[in-house]
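MarR family transcriptional regulator, pasting as requested.
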Amino acid sequence: MRTLHDLRDEMLAVARGTRPVPPVQSVTDGEAVSGLLGLLTPANRTLMQLIATERPETVSRLAQLANRAQPNVSRALQDLAKHGLVRLVRDGMSIRPELVAAEIDVDLVCGDCRVVPMVVGAE
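Structure tokens follow.
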């Protein structure tokens, strides 16, 4: 299992263009699938939609847009980032959230799911 540090380094390399966007990520471990699907609460889906449509410059601004407390939003974003759905980009003293996942495909028969990344330039 990769560490958050490894994921951060990979995301930074993709953002700089020194590494290609990773392929679709499949999650097959039942516990990981449950964790990923458990993140898709209405409140977290709202955060992801606001990130995609409003492109907030800071986590604080996202919290304002979502009408949620900033620490609550920060915790949710950390969980979403851990599962590869969002990226948290340090921008000076602040952190800017970016949507990474375009969609999540769930195969109910096989019990797995795939996180499909955003296509760069298609936002």
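Note for the archive: DSSP finds five helices and five strands in the chain.
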